[in-house]
Specification:
The chain has helices at 18-23, 27-50, 61-66, 68-76, 96-114, 132-138, 187-191, 204-221, 233-236, 239-254, 263-273, and strands at 6-13, 56-59, 80-83, 120-121, 143-144, 155-159, 172-178, 225-231, 258-260. It is an alpha/beta fold. It has a single domain (6-273), classed as Glycoside hydrolase/deacetylase (TIM Barrel, Alpha-Beta Barrel), CATH 3.20.20. Strands 1, 2, 3, 8 and 9 form a five-stranded parallel β-sheet that branches. A four-stranded mixed β-sheet has the order 4-5-7-6, sandwiched between helices. Strand 4, helix 6 and strand 5 form a beta-alpha-beta unit. The longest helix has 24 residues, at 27-50. It is globular and about 45 Å long. The two termini are 23 Å apart. The structure holds zinc ion. Zinc ion binds next to loops.
């Protein structure tokens, strides 16, 4: 297969109500999460179907066991389901034993819900402990998507870094592939206010400007890049925002050599083309 000039990966964190339940949120904040399975995901699935786009959904096990039909609909539509913790825990705050336990149990539950072992583990809140990536490696994940050292090129996660304010000793690349992410390509900090409803809420046109400029730059300058968008059904699923996402899709489709793909397939292709030395 000819390497596409640019791959666009649409990813959706289907957090549902998991993060508010685990943080003790009340009925209002829990209902905001409930917008995802009730409204956001069906809208997203219709959009992806209209444009024949395979995408990636990162799902906490809490969502998989609470909103079974929602996750079943994602699987039935042929999208990837990756693992996103059990109840959207900040794993950096867990003990070593609890972190190991959460990652093992959530991977097993996502495997049950999706019918195949999840390939990807993006940490909830993109928060990693010193151990998380080693655990992900040991559990057989193919990729992480929580780091920011590149924008559109995959790379191998380094393990064994030792940091000191005088000098850091950098470790060595591991088998685990990184799909780099960025807060600027994440819908949440642009659109969603804090937990009291206060804070800036961007117009979709502002986010559209940033996302399309990143798309055009990567297409022109970074051959074989992968532009990864991070979205949340309860945020991007609102009318004005999903209309913006559709305009983004149409703009990408105008560019020669742009394809949309799910991340497990992107990572598989990349790892085959970039074997470990
Ligand atoms: Zn999340």
């Amino acid at each position: 297969m000819v390497e596409p000039q640019l791959t666009v990966a649409l990813t959706f964190d289907h957090d549902g109500i998991s993060s508010e339940v685990s943080r003790g949120g009340g009925p209002v904040l829990i209902s905001r999460g409930g917008f995802g399975p009730r409204v956001g995901v069906p809208r997203i699935l219709r959009l992806l179907d209209r444009h024949r786009i395979p995408a990636t959904f990162f799902v906490p096990a809490h969502t998989a066991v609470t909103f079974r039909e929602s996750v079943a609909a994602i699987v039935a539509a042929g999208h990837e389901v990756g693992c996103h913790g059990w109840a959207h825990e900040d794993v950096a705050q867990l003990s070593e034993a609890d972190e190991q336990d959460v990652m093992e149990r959530s991977a097993a539950e996502i495997e049950r819900a999706a019918g195949r072992r999840p390939a990807g583990f993006p940490a909830p809140y993109w928060s990693l402990s010193e151990r998380t990536l080693e655990i992900a490696l040991a559990l057989g994940f193919a990729y992480d998507s929580s780091l920011m050292a590149d924008d559109v090129h995959l790379y191998r996660v380094r393990t064994g870094d030792r940091h000191d304010v005088q000098r850091s000793a950098l470790g060595t690349p591991s088998r685990l592939v990184e799909v780099p992410i960025s807060w600027s390509l994440d819908d949440w900090p642009h659109f969603e206010p804090g937990r009291l409803g206060l804070g800036p809420m961007s117009a979709p046109s502002k986010v559209e400007e940033i996302w399309q400029a990143e798309l055009l730059y990567a297409h022109e300058h970074e051959r074989s890049g992968v532009l990864t968008l991070t979205m949340h059904p309860e945020a991007i699923g609102r009318g004005s925002r999903i209309a913006m996402l559709e305009r983004f899709i149409l703009a990408a489709r105008q560019l020669p050599g742009v394809v949309f793909d799910r991340l497990d397939h992107v990572v598989e292709r990349w790892a085959a083309a970039n074997p470990m030395s």
